[in-house]
Amino acid sequence: MADVVPLDVWVTRWNIEVWPIERLTVAKRQLRTVSAEQVARIGHSIAAFGQVLPILVTQDGEVIDGHSRLEAAKAHGMTKVSCMVVSHLSADEVRLLRLSINRLAERGAWDIPSLKVELGELICLELP
Protein backbone atom coordinates (compact mmCIF):
# COMPACT_ATOMS: atom_id res chain seq x y z
CA MET A 1 0.00 0.00 0.00
CA ALA A 2 1.23 3.50 -0.78
CA ASP A 3 2.58 5.63 2.04
CA VAL A 4 0.18 8.18 3.49
CA VAL A 5 0.88 11.52 1.82
CA PRO A 6 -0.47 14.94 2.82
CA LEU A 7 -3.50 15.82 0.67
CA ASP A 8 -1.94 18.92 -0.86
CA VAL A 9 0.73 16.73 -2.46
CA TRP A 10 -1.88 14.73 -4.42
CA VAL A 11 -2.91 17.80 -6.39
CA THR A 12 0.51 18.00 -8.00
CA ARG A 13 0.23 14.37 -9.12
CA TRP A 14 -2.86 14.93 -11.25
CA ASN A 15 -2.07 14.58 -14.90
CA ILE A 16 -4.82 15.22 -17.46
CA GLU A 17 -4.05 14.40 -21.08
CA VAL A 18 -6.00 13.95 -24.30
CA TRP A 19 -5.60 10.40 -25.58
CA PRO A 20 -6.88 8.58 -28.68
CA ILE A 21 -9.72 6.27 -27.72
CA GLU A 22 -7.94 3.21 -29.09
CA ARG A 23 -5.20 3.69 -26.46
CA LEU A 24 -7.69 2.89 -23.68
CA THR A 25 -8.52 -0.62 -22.53
CA VAL A 26 -11.36 -1.69 -20.28
CA ALA A 27 -10.71 -3.46 -17.02
CA LYS A 28 -10.86 -7.24 -17.27
CA ARG A 29 -13.65 -7.17 -14.66
CA GLN A 30 -16.24 -4.47 -14.99
CA LEU A 31 -17.78 -4.11 -11.57
CA ARG A 32 -21.03 -2.43 -12.59
CA THR A 33 -23.40 -2.97 -15.44
CA VAL A 34 -24.63 -0.06 -17.53
CA SER A 35 -27.61 -0.11 -19.86
CA ALA A 36 -27.59 1.18 -23.41
CA GLU A 37 -30.03 3.84 -22.21
CA GLN A 38 -27.54 5.07 -19.61
CA VAL A 39 -24.73 5.19 -22.19
CA ALA A 40 -27.02 7.19 -24.48
CA ARG A 41 -27.81 9.64 -21.67
CA ILE A 42 -24.13 10.11 -20.95
CA GLY A 43 -23.57 10.70 -24.66
CA HIS A 44 -26.27 13.40 -24.70
CA SER A 45 -24.59 15.04 -21.72
CA ILE A 46 -21.22 15.02 -23.48
CA ALA A 47 -22.84 16.47 -26.60
CA ALA A 48 -24.48 19.24 -24.57
CA PHE A 49 -21.65 20.17 -22.19
CA GLY A 50 -18.49 18.61 -23.62
CA GLN A 51 -16.42 15.99 -21.87
CA VAL A 52 -16.00 17.85 -18.60
CA LEU A 53 -15.17 14.77 -16.55
CA PRO A 54 -12.01 12.94 -17.63
CA ILE A 55 -11.74 9.18 -17.78
CA LEU A 56 -9.51 7.90 -15.00
CA VAL A 57 -6.80 5.61 -16.44
CA THR A 58 -3.53 3.95 -15.53
CA GLN A 59 -0.40 5.00 -17.39
CA ASP A 60 -0.88 1.85 -19.51
CA GLY A 61 -4.36 3.00 -20.56
CA GLU A 62 -6.49 0.68 -18.44
CA VAL A 63 -9.72 2.43 -17.45
CA ILE A 64 -10.09 2.78 -13.69
CA ASP A 65 -13.28 4.86 -13.77
CA GLY A 66 -15.25 6.05 -16.75
CA HIS A 67 -16.18 2.92 -18.70
CA SER A 68 -19.62 4.39 -19.45
CA ARG A 69 -18.12 7.72 -20.58
CA LEU A 70 -15.75 5.81 -22.85
CA GLU A 71 -18.62 3.83 -24.40
CA ALA A 72 -20.64 7.02 -24.89
CA ALA A 73 -17.67 8.76 -26.52
CA LYS A 74 -17.25 5.82 -28.91
CA ALA A 75 -20.96 5.81 -29.71
CA HIS A 76 -20.82 9.52 -30.58
CA GLY A 77 -17.86 9.05 -32.90
CA MET A 78 -15.28 10.75 -30.70
CA THR A 79 -11.71 9.73 -31.50
CA LYS A 80 -10.03 11.36 -28.48
CA VAL A 81 -10.98 11.75 -24.83
CA SER A 82 -9.62 13.58 -21.80
CA CYS A 83 -7.95 11.21 -19.38
CA MET A 84 -6.66 11.69 -15.87
CA VAL A 85 -3.60 9.49 -15.68
CA VAL A 86 -2.87 7.75 -12.38
CA SER A 87 0.71 6.56 -12.20
CA HIS A 88 1.47 6.32 -8.49
CA LEU A 89 -0.61 3.26 -7.58
CA SER A 90 0.23 -0.43 -7.81
CA ALA A 91 -2.02 -2.77 -9.81
CA ASP A 92 -3.70 -3.95 -6.61
CA GLU A 93 -4.24 -0.38 -5.42
CA VAL A 94 -5.86 0.42 -8.80
CA ARG A 95 -8.26 -2.49 -8.25
CA LEU A 96 -9.09 -1.20 -4.78
CA LEU A 97 -9.56 2.35 -6.09
CA ARG A 98 -11.93 1.10 -8.80
CA LEU A 99 -14.03 -0.69 -6.20
CA SER A 100 -13.95 2.29 -3.83
CA ILE A 101 -15.08 4.78 -6.47
CA ASN A 102 -18.04 2.62 -7.42
CA ARG A 103 -19.02 1.87 -3.82
CA LEU A 104 -18.76 5.47 -2.64
CA ALA A 105 -21.12 6.64 -5.39
CA GLU A 106 -23.78 4.24 -4.10
CA ARG A 107 -23.65 5.63 -0.58
CA GLY A 108 -24.65 9.18 -1.43
CA ALA A 109 -28.19 10.47 -0.98
CA TRP A 110 -30.14 13.37 -2.45
CA ASP A 111 -31.10 16.34 -0.31
CA ILE A 112 -34.70 16.41 -1.57
CA PRO A 113 -35.61 19.99 -0.49
CA SER A 114 -32.47 21.39 -2.11
CA LEU A 115 -33.00 19.26 -5.21
CA LYS A 116 -36.56 20.62 -5.59
CA VAL A 117 -35.30 24.21 -5.43
CA GLU A 118 -32.47 23.54 -7.89
CA LEU A 119 -34.74 21.79 -10.41
CA GLY A 120 -37.41 24.48 -10.07
CA GLU A 121 -34.91 27.21 -10.84
CA LEU A 122 -33.43 25.31 -13.77
CA ILE A 123 -36.87 24.63 -15.28
CA CYS A 124 -37.58 28.37 -15.22
CA LEU A 125 -34.41 29.02 -17.23
CA GLU A 126 -35.75 26.98 -20.19
CA LEU A 127 -32.39 25.39 -20.89
CA PRO A 128 -32.14 22.69 -23.59
List the helices and strands and how they pair.
Elements: H1 7-13, E1 16-20, H2 36-49, E2 55-58, E3 63-65, H3 67-75, E4 80-86, H4 91-106, H5 112-125
Features:
4-stranded mixed β-sheet; 47% helix; 128 residues; Conserved hypothetical protein from pyrococcus furiosus pfu- 392566-001, ParB domain; alpha+beta
Structural summary, described in words:
This protein is of the alpha+beta class. The chain has a single domain (7-125), classed as Conserved hypothetical protein from pyrococcus furiosus pfu- 392566-001, ParB domain (Alpha-Beta Complex). 47% of the residues lie in helices and 15% in strands. It has five helices and four strands. It has helices at 7-13, 36-49, 67-75, 91-106, 112-125; strands spanning 16-20, 55-58, 63-65, 80-86. Strands 1-4-2-3 form a four-stranded mixed sheet. β2 and β3 form a beta hairpin.
Brief characterization of the structure:
By secondary structure, the protein is of the alpha+beta class.
In whole angstroms, the N-to-C terminal distance is 46 Å
Q: Strand portion, in percent?
A: 5-15%
Helix content: 40-55%
Mean pLDDT: 87
pLDDT below 50 for ≥5 consecutive residues: which ranges? none
By DSSP (H or I, 4+ residues per run), the number of helices equals 5
CATH architecture: Alpha-Beta Complex
For the largest beta-sheet, the strand count, sense and barrel status come to: 4 strands, mixed
* CATH class designation: Alpha Beta
Our count of domains comes out at 1
Question: What is the chain-wise order of helices and strands?
Answer: HEHEEHEHH
Query: What does the overall shape look like?
Result: globular
Within CATH, the superfamily carries the name Conserved hypothetical protein from pyrococcus furiosus pfu- 392566-001, ParB domain
Q: Which fold name fills CATH's third level, the topology?
A: Conserved hypothetical protein from pyrococcus furiosus pfu- 392566-001, ParB domain
